[in-house]
Amino acid sequence: MKASIRRILTFVEETHTEAGQAVSPATRRAVSAAVISNPFAGKYVEDLTPLMEIGEELGELLTARAIEALGIPGDKVESFGKAAAIGEDGELEHGAALMHPRLGAPVRRLLGKGAALIPSSKKRCAPGSPFDLPLGHKDAAKVRSHFDGIEVRIPDAPRADEIVVAVGVTDSGRPLPRVGGLLKQDVKGEDGLI
Question: Can you give the CATH number for the domain in which 83 is found?
Answer without folding.
Answer: 3.30.1330.110
